[in-house]
């Protein structure tokens, strides 16, 4: 969901293999040889990494479903993925309606429409792992079947839907990747939210409902998905995912901490803001978000870990627990190592772009806590 806005919310790009299908401008370059990357660079305008945009100046509550940002249904070929928030931004034109955007466009859009924190570091973490550093473009969607067969690992092809980068198991309204579709709205899963809302939320989505939904989804994945992965980075993002609707999908003129289920469905299923929707007043208070996450985590006993090849065979990974600082730096290490695995020996403009995006990532605040690795000296 809106995981791309905070901890690990963000975009991942599709990747093409020049020998299996033509590389598009927003496809990732990971897994390609230097010769293949050079061939691609000669066919496009090389933009390279760009510095983050400035924060927006007006953060007051205001109408965001306005005449300049009408809802337009999805057209064939446009990209949408597992994140209802980013999907909605594209369907209303805050992001390019194609679903292909630059990091700067994403950072600005998540400020303009939902009034979210800039989320610079997670956007550039995603870009490092799955973006196209030469064209500076990313996709919020999936690999198109029109592009032919997927290239071999470590190449990535599925945009934000790439499993285990930012998308993860036990999503609230999207199925686990093991079952074949981790990006489409799942009515059965939404009905589980409805059931929990009727049980503990008086028919509305509240923080207590979020806690119940998170627990049920984890238990369901343990019982049905032999490849269930609830470790790093998914453990760190799964809880924020459940409280983001309370932060961004409630009309900014309301002081209620409960979300109407019809409004929730509009965002999750249709990628559509209600008519007359106003954004929240002021950017997201991270301390408030942290308090809600703590409510969700404290309601049941959760452990990071994974199913060991069979269902109901959950192996805890207690080493990932600890201080919030340790968890943050574990995420940093995860995405840094992922980048190095995909680009073991980058050269020229690609190397320069990767270093710039690493700087963008750490200059956003992560560097104050975690050490920036010098992986591309």
Automatic annotation (TrEMBL):
GO MF terms held by the record: metal ion binding; peroxidase activity
Signal sequence, start to end: 1-20
Keywords: Heme, Iron, Metal-binding, Oxidoreductase, Peroxidase, Signal
Domain Heme haloperoxidase family profile: 67-291
PROSITE patterns (UniProt xref): HEME_HALOPEROXIDASE
Cofactor or coenzyme needed: heme b
Family: Belongs to the chloroperoxidase family.
Official protein name in the record: Cloroperoxidase
